[in-house]
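If you are new to this repository, start here. Below is one unmodified record pulled from the training split, so you can see the exact layout before writing a loader.
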Amino acid sequence: MNTLTRPETDATTEAVPPAMSYLQLFVRFLKFGLLAWGGPVAQIGMLRSELVDEERWISSERFNKLLAVMQVLPGPEAHELCVHLGIRAKGRLGGVLAGLGFMLPGFLLMFALSWLYFQIDIAGTALGAAFLGMQAAVIALIVRAVHRIGEHILLDRWLWAIAIACALAAMGGVDFWITLPAGGLVYALLVLKHRALALLVTLAAVALATAVALWTAPTAKLVETVVQGQASVLLIFAAGLKAGLLTFGGAYTAIPFIRDDAVGRGWLTDGQFLDGLALSGVLPAPLIIFATFVGYAAGGPIGAVAMTAGIFLPAFAFSLIFYDRLEAVVDNKRLHAFLNGVAAGVVGLIGATTIDLARVTAERVPSLTAGISIFAAALAFLYFWKNKLNVVVVILAAGLAGWLVFPGQG
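And here is the target side for that same chain:
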């Protein structure tokens, strides 16, 4: 029997993907999507093991450079890598098919769960009690994520200062479109040793935030009346797109932006928002797929598609449009400094959002002691059991605990 050998397994030869049809490419990444448990670290590890180490679609050195780029740019890194590798195999259409294949299982599962969730009245049922337990565990997931993301982003005192300032500003009602660009500019200027300009940008941001607050206060009622509960397809898509463009360092960074639109506009409650996060935690998909749940709450099936399309669009677009130039981002130190400052600000926003969600959850659980116990146990488990299924186990165990200690309280 003849055995086929790949000439590119030679270390001196350029690593290239094998020849395959578009259908074969789609099915290959669909398989990755079906096995996408455990968050981005496990997903990227799976891609590396099969496509870099075993099949040599791309060299390890180039894969590492691309991963560095994807971690700097907004969007889920694993999905962006799939798009990039699909382009490498079959051009831009291949990139679209690879990205769709990777996200499709999670989208379909979340779509089905969203339909089921909004068909059933879980209030006062055992299922409602289970979701209360899950909500406490979701707070633990976010706290763990803030720590994990922060230790990779908050690498010096200035980044810490930007994160804290953005968190305090968010608690004071200052919009992210003021704090995040200011954080990026300030840090870039500090890196370039322009401290006077950095101070000037800081003062300008404070002045702008003050002016917006004074202008907004008299019109807040009118804006609330016009916007509250309205969820056109375009508005849902725009909310997803905004979150997709501001997702730095992992899907958890999308939480404050999606919550601001979804809960702020009355599309769903904080409790339902946490339920959506809990459901996404048990699916083989990037956690950002919880946007499908939010879109469904806002606009039904069409809303689910619109929100999902918006949040994943940047992950497709960066590779599809800038495929040949992405690696140059690694060498652009000024852009790195700006994006690092923005990312630090996003960490601060997640921290502020976590405090808000924790307060809401504490008000909803019938026993604060039991809620804190579930939260503490979940957090300890996440820290000490480092396994790709730890999130799934934590969510399901917390649901069981909620069912046991909050009977009939959902």
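Two things worth knowing about this chain: The chain has 16 helices and no strands. Residues 1-12, 218-230 have pLDDT under 50 and may be disordered.
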